[in-house]
Specification:
single chain; 195 residues
Length: 195
C-alpha cells in the first residue's frame, strides 16, 4: 500500500458518507422523510466509526499493520462528527432548538438518555484528542479515552431501543462491539498505553 494512500485514504474515505448524505439531502433524494433518513444515517455512521476506532488495536496486534495506529484518532473524530450531525439534526428539525424539550426528552425517553450520554462521551474524547491534552492529562487521558467502550455500548443500546421492532441490525452491531471488547481481555495486563 502506498504511503499517500495510508496517510490520506482514511481521512478522505471518512468524509465520503457525509458528503453523499448532504448532496442527497440537497437534491431531495433521501425519500419521503429526508430528515429522518439523514438522522438515521448519521447515527449509524457514528456507530460504524466507533466500531472502526475500536477495531484498530486488534487489527494492529493480529496483522502487524502498525500504519493504522495514527488513524485511530481520525476514526474517533469521525465518529464524533457523525454523532454531532445526528444530534444537531434531531435538535434543529425535531425540537426546533427548544432546549426545554431536549431536557424533557433526555429525562423521559430512555433511548434519548443513552444516546445523549454517548454523544457527551464522544464530545469529551474529541475535545481531549489533541497532543496538548495528552501531555496535560497524562494517565488521566488514558482512563478518559477508555470511555470510548462505554460510548459504543450506549450507542448500540440507543439504536436497539430506537428501532423497537426490527432488532437484527442493532444486534449485529452489538455483537461486533461485544467481540471487540472481548479481544481486549487477554491484552489488559500486557499494555496500559493502547486503547
Amino acid at each position: 500500500m502506498s504511503d499517500a494512500l495510508k496517510r490520506f485514504g482514511i481521512p478522505i474515505l471518512g468524509a465520503l458518507p457525509l458528503v453523499g448524505l448532504v448532496i442527497a439531502f440537497s437534491l431531495d433524494e433521501l425519500g419521503a422523510d429526508p430528515v429522518e433518513k439523514f438522522t438515521h444515517e448519521t447515527g449509524e455512521w457514528a456507530l460504524r466509526f466507533l466500531i472502526l476506532t475500536l477495531l484498530v488495536t486488534p487489527l494492529r496486534r493480529f496483522t502487524g499493520w502498525s500504519w493504522l495506529a495514527p488513524h485511530r484518532r481520525t476514526l474517533g473524530l469521525y465518529a464524533f462528527v457523525y454523532a454531532a450531525h445526528h444530534f444537531a439534526t434531531y435538535l434543529v428539525f425535531d425540537l426546533g432548538f427548544d432546549f426545554a424539550f431536549l431536557g424533557e426528552d433526555i429525562l423521559e425517553r430512555p433511548y434519548i438518555t443513552v444516546g445523549f450520554a454517548s454523544f457527551l462521551i464522544l464530545l469529551a474524547l474529541a475535545a481531549t484528542s489533541t497532543k496538548g491534552a495528552v501531555k496535560r492529562l497524562k494517565k488521566k487521558w488514558i482512563a478518559l479515552h477508555r470511555l470510548v467502550y462505554a460510548a459504543a455500548i450506549l450507542a448500540v443500546v440507543h439504536f436497539l431501543w430506537l428501532v423497537k421492532a426490527d432488532l437484527l441490525e442493532p444486534l449485529i452491531y452489538g455483537a461486533i462491539v461485544a467481540a471487540l471488547l472481548a479481544t481486549r481481555v487477554p491484552w489488559k495486563r500486557s499494555t496500559a498505553r493502547s486503547l
